[in-house]
Amino acid sequence: MSDSIILGIESSCDDTSAAIIKGNTILSNIAATQSIHKEYGGVVPELASRAHQQNIIPVVEKSVIKANIQQNAISAIGFTRGPGLLGSLLVGTSFAKSLAMSLDVPLIEVNHLQAHILAHFIEDANPMPPKFPFLCLTVSGGHTMIVLVKDYFDMEIIGKTIDDAAGEAFDKIGKIFDLDYPAGPIIDKLAKEGNPSSFTFNKPKLENYNYSFSGIKTSVLYFIQKEVKKNPHFIQENLNDLCASVQKAIIEILMNKLEKAAEELNIQEVAIAGGVSANSALRKAMEDNKIKKGWNIYIPKFEYTTDNAAMIAMVAQLKFERGEFTDLRTTATAKYDL
Fold this sequence. Notes:
Elements: E1 5-10, E2 15-22, E3 25-33, H1 45-67, E4 76-82, H2 86-103, E5 107-111, H3 112-118, E6 134-139, E7 144-151, E8 154-160, H4 166-176, H5 184-191, H6 214-230, H7 234-265, E9 269-273, H8 280-292, E10 296-298, H9 309-321
Parallel strand pairs: 1-4, 4-5, 6-9, 9-10
Antiparallel strand pairs: 1-2, 2-3, 6-7, 7-8
């Protein structure tokens, strides 16, 4: 891999992030998170794009300083073109274009979903990178899919959610439990103190490798409504057990399809990516299958699970080596297929 120095910029949702990569070594990975969305129980697109405008210059500046480089050492600029919130993406895209023009360096557009998967090729993401072909369960607040990765840029979605993403289901169920947003990490923490067998919730029966999470959300809602009528303090008195039971159900739904795909396609190389890949129960399920099924598993470092610019820089580096540049006419796009 070349020793070119690349700046990556990520602004697809509510985190403004910038990273510097040299080869496949991350020299800096800086992020500014937006706490304002907690008040609203979800990301407010207009507020997110305004916060990106405030954060992007200081974040890029910090990433350059931490990497201990001069701006004129940057060989190219990679940025998230999509998918994501259009207003947020426009901020990152416009900034990347302006900076590339001022430094007179190439511009590289990056698909956010590809970046989550290819984060596994960052030097310190895993002891060893995955071998092709591998399966990657890419799971976050906005996406849930099983991707067959045949090469760096040859990917096929073989299963995806037909409604809510898994991370979205965690957040919506967290709202039913009156937990703060984002609820996924809170549910994960409380679940450690609970009994995952306390309650059972409906699981979807879908053919092939597709997912559905709207059913479990409805199942939890009706169950809670019924129990709260009998005991107004039911949620508070059973919160840890409720979180553990919900988490168990969602992770089982995710793993059942992943296990089915691995078995039917005869693939032992299995990875997870995206924000929900930080979930401790999902990580344990992967570790269990390493023993039970002989999988070679790839679980990213925590800092590469959430939306981050290191993964954008990694993809940009791979594209730089292939001479895959874009021009200043490029535009952000809310939908961007793999």
